[in-house]
Amino acid sequence: MITNMLNHKPSKLFLGIMAFFVANALIAECIGGKIFSLEKIFGWNPMEFSFFGQSGLSFNLTCGVLLWPLEFIITDIVNEYYGPKWVRRISYTAIVIIMYAFLMFYMAMQTPPADFWIISKANNGIPNMQDAFGGIFGQGMWIILGSLTAFMVSQIVDVVVFHKIKKLTGEKWVWLRATGSTLVSQFIDSFIVLFIAFKIGNNWSWQLVLAIAMVNYIYKFSMAVLLTPLIYLLEAGINKYLGKENAMQMKRNAMEN
Asked: Is the dihedral of CA 51, 196, 228, 174 positive or negative?
């Protein structure tokens, strides 16, 4: 049975996609504690603009957003070839692995550190390795809850919108269902994570939550549009790997699931 599965191209493809999806989601969560300046990447000075009465805003983003657009592209690919049931499967798997990872991070932070490790010349001048370790891996519980909730809800929305558009357009306009579903789901994702993590968890004002969410969504919107050609490249590669007839049959079956 195992040999048959490993020789079955659709099964091998799904296993590879799921492995990348889960790993990408976990990495995004792990690097999410760093905030970077998008403007400085291009050598620009930070912009200053206003939303909902909040002034002095600029594109200061969590590093996690660098990877999340890939998650929604993968979701659309799985949706296209395997159907909603398999999107839910990879989503639940990612959430379970992320929860397990954060549990292990928490347990690692609670272990008593060796005295020489806390302050050591080998630590490149870091004054307290225990504090540094906790700062990197010890994200607040509200942030974790907000991130996981937003991820799950946005995945469900992405699946629903994707299939509604596909039912209307058929096999045409891949870009419309892929980009359209991502734009809707990313909009919801941007607001849910900030609402839970910072409105409920840190009592931010509604104006600040909405303003920061809009800044994040502008970035995600732009990335969804810019990455649209990647959908076509991935589809071309998958069709070549599976064979055009087999790929079309999988797409038809996906619409029935």
From this structure: negative
